[in-house]
């Protein structure tokens, strides 16, 4: 009964209150997800060395993000479809979409495990990973890909729960597995001296636990989104619906990560200190990304359910409210991260050269992050209506292609970390303008529904 009331509030309640009620569990969940991911980096950086820090936070991190990011994009397709059926109270089609999504996550996990293990070393060499980092990076990724099925099952299960308005239970799962991951990191690395292997095993073990918990939650629920093991199979029509939305979102994520990999290649040419600082920056500014992504997930679910219920004017109003809240939140975070950058970096490493490089990177990039807020919120809102192709093209063309083009032009003329970092605000600015134009042209809700 409580879950039904909560879902009804998404389509009927006070918009800002419901967005915040949905947002906070997601942002806290993402926070624990970042702690979960960052724990590996902190432990190896403090107790193993900067080579291990570069191995876990450099090329290996980019490759893992590329693979997982594509699937998370695909799972967002399932989330949109399920949120629309849930908003329309269509039990039959919701069930088909849910079981198809689960079948897909299992099949994709198996494929990615095999492909990931075989392509790890060639990918690291192709990215010009420093020679003193390659071996540890390969070990980390082999173990990481070994647990890919559980990683994907968790991500799909969590996406389904959020799609129906339940953002609290994924948070509880992350808290449990985050604490477990930290304990295992310290046990395997500090107590047993397992190095990079230890943090990889800790990560996979935690992913297994998270996948099992989320699956049990869906099996035990009495709501219309109940999971039944004997019904996990592909439904052709639902698979097409999920992929129609999910593939563009997945490709968008892939292009983001490909551009990040290209950036990583340029960074790799600047030495181990810069690689370690850049990898650590990715963990630090995750505080910003987790807030924007939480707002984007919130507005996607909010728009999706109201779209299914036919409440178009409410959709547009919710986007405006979400944009204001995300801008205000970003301002606070950016100021704090800018001010405390030196102290934050010292949590990861005692190497002064890495700290100096990292503080410069943080303070150079942070002011431009406001631009991305526009892209994140409008992209999430459009995805909620099922409009994914054009936003994907805008992102791939505006952010990713321009970033790569900048690197291979300006990066060749003026090589260095400042030129690499300038690719972010340049590409974001152009893409933000394109998103604003498309949103006002195509987003439903210009008039109140009857």
Automatic annotation (TrEMBL):
GO terms for molecular function: antiporter activity; xenobiotic transmembrane transporter activity. It holds the Pfam family MatE. GO terms for cellular component: plasma membrane. It is a multi-pass membrane protein. InterPro entries: MATE_fam (IPR002528), MdtK-like (IPR048279), Membrane_Transporter-Flippase (IPR052031). It is found in: Cell membrane. The chain crosses the membrane at residues 20-36, 63-86, 98-119, 139-164, 171-193, 199-219, 239-266, 286-307, 319-344, 364-382, 389-408, 420-441. Keywords: Cell membrane, Membrane, Transmembrane, Transmembrane helix, Transport. It comes from the Bacteria. NCBIfam families: matE. This is MATE family efflux transporter. It comes from Blautia wexlerae.
């Amino acid at each position: 009964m409580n879950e039904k009331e909560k879902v009804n509030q998404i389509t009927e309640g006070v918009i800002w209150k419901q967005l915040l009620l949905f947002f906070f569990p997601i942002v806290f969940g993402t926070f624990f997800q970042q702690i979960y991911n960052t724990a590996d980096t902190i432990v190896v950086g403090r107790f193993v060395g900067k080579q291990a820090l570069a191995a876990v936070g450099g090329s290996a991190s980019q490759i893992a993000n590329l693979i997982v990011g594509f699937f998370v994009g695909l799972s967002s397709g399932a989330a949109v479809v399920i949120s629309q059926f849930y908003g329309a109270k269509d039990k039959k089609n919701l069930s088909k979409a849910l079981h198809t999504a689960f079948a897909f996550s299992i099949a994709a996990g198996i494929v990615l495990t095999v492909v990931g293990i075989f392509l790890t070393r060639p990918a690291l060499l192709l990215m010009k990973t420093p020679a003193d980092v390659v071996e540890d990076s390969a070990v980390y990724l082999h173990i990481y890909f070994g647990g890919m099925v559980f990683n994907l099952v968790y991500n799909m299960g969590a996406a389904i729960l959020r799609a129906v308005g339940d953002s609290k239970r994924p948070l509880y799962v992350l808290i449990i597995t985050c604490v477990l991951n930290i304990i295992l990191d310290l046990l395997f690395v500090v107590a047993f001296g397992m190095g990079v292997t230890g943090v990889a095993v800790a990560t996979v073990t935690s992913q297994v636990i998270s996948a099992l918990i989320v699956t049990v939650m869906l099996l035990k629920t009495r709501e219309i989104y109940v999971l039944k093991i004997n019904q996990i199979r592909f439904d052709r029509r639902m698979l097409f619906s999920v992929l129609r939305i999910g593939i563009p979102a997945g490709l968008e994520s892939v292009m983001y990560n490909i551009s990040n990999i290209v950036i990583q290649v340029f960074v790799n040419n600047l030495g181990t200190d810069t690689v370690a600082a850049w990898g650590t920056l990715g963990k630090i500014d995750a505080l910003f990304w987790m807030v924007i992504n939480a707002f984007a997930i919130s507005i996607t679910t909010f728009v999706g359910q109201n779209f299914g219920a036919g409440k178009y004017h409410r959709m547009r109003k919710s986007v405006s409210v979400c944009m204001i809240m995300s801008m205000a939140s970003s301002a606070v975070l950016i100021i704090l991260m800018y001010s405390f950058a030196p102290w934050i970096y010292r949590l990861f490493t005692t190497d002064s050269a890495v700290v100096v490089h990292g503080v410069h990177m943080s303070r150079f990039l942070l002011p431009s992050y406001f631009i991305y807020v526009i892209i994140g919120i409008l992209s999430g809102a459009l995805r909620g209506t099922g409009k994914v192709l054009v936003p994907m093209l805008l992102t791939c063309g505006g952010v990713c292609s321009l970033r790569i083009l900048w690197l291979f032009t300006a990066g060749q003329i003026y090589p260095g970390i400042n030129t690499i970092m300038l690719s972010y605000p340049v590409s974001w600015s152009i893409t933000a303008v394109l998103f604003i134009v498309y949103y006002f042209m195509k987003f439903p809700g210009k008039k109140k529904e009857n």
